[in-house]
Prior knowledge:
Blueprint: H1 2-24, H2 36-59, H3 64-94, H4 101-131, E1 135-143, E2 150-155, H5 166-178, E3 183-187, E4 214-217, H6 220-224, H7 227-235, E5 240-241, E6 245-249, E7 252-256, H8 261-265, H9 272-276, E8 285-288, E9 304-307, H10 319-326, E10 331-334, E11 340-343, E12 361-369
Parallel strand pairs: 1-12, 2-3, 3-4, 4-5, 7-8, 8-9, 9-11
Antiparallel strand pairs: 2-12, 6-7, 10-11
Domain Calcineurin-like phosphoesterase: 150-312
GO molecular function: metal ion binding; UDP-2,3-diacylglucosamine hydrolase activity
GO biological process, one term: lipid A biosynthetic process
Amino acid sequence: MGLLRIIIGAFVFSFLINFYSYNRFIKKVSFFIPYLAKIRILLYVICILEFIFVLQIRFSFLSIELYLIAGILIGFSLFLFAVSLFYDILRSIFSKSNFSPTRRKFIKFCFDITFVIFVIACFLKGIFNALTPPKIRQVDIKIKNLQSNLKIAMITDVHIGEFLQKDFMKKLVNGINLANPDIVVIVGDLVDINAAFIGDFLEPLKSLKSTYGTFYVPGNHEYYHGIDGILEKISSLGIEILGNKNKKIASINLAGVYDLAGFRFKHLEPNLDEALTGRDPSLPTILLSHQPKFIKSMQQDVDLVLCGHTHAGQIFPFGLLVLLDQGFLHGLYKINDKMQAYVSSGAGFWGPPVRIFAPSEIAILNLSKE
Length: 370
């Protein structure tokens, strides 16, 4: 019944946002009017394909090509809805202005064509952002009592699975190795597929090079696809799993917790007290936690929390909803006098292969003494 509600809800949501975009944006653009019948048919097809895409997430029956097309259409619907809402607001403001009919018609034509060009340009750039390897983002962070400088390469939210596979993983590894890090951390949602179907998608991780090794905590998506098998697979690659534990590395305590999804699944639940047990109190502590909203529940401070999950919103302006849910979106945050947090925008994508105003990244964290 839960799955059925999700599927029906997704279809209704798809229909409503496309209906709104059609009535409040597309119908109001003068040069679309001769083609409205065809556009309506196209929107019906889009709704059906988006419904199929939701089924695909659960049952995995589409080819890669159809998966990509359906996912892109979902991204397009979401962005078009956001633009339509903005267009609607501006059109309402514009309608109150006192212009002559001729001037009003000219201004509206310029206004309409600007919005159409904006939608197309931003959406195409969003597809490009999602499907190309992430860029390196250098982040300088001051840490109290840090004995020596440390370079941490951080990736999150790769979502290896239906579309992003071995080639994409290899490009990530090459990018990380070029940075010559001291430590590599993978902060959840590395995998979005059952362990039985991973095959050699993660094999490039064996080629990661760093001074002290690679460390990982799971995200919520690993729980959806059988976390025990996934953890076993990741551990077999020589990656150390920091599930509710810590390890002294160089001049820091590196700790990690399981994801908040553990509470829902009643399995491998996050436990900060357990994760920090036995740490060296004279050294700074860095905590890996996939979802940044875990910070809100922390009863002990650490020096730096590294998180992912948000994708920086992935499709603008839906980052506002992510911000409401998580309390953080992307970048470096000062939590209090002692604790900071860095939230990565992630290396891959989930669902629509689109990133609009939310570029992916490999974060290189350059830690130095405050």
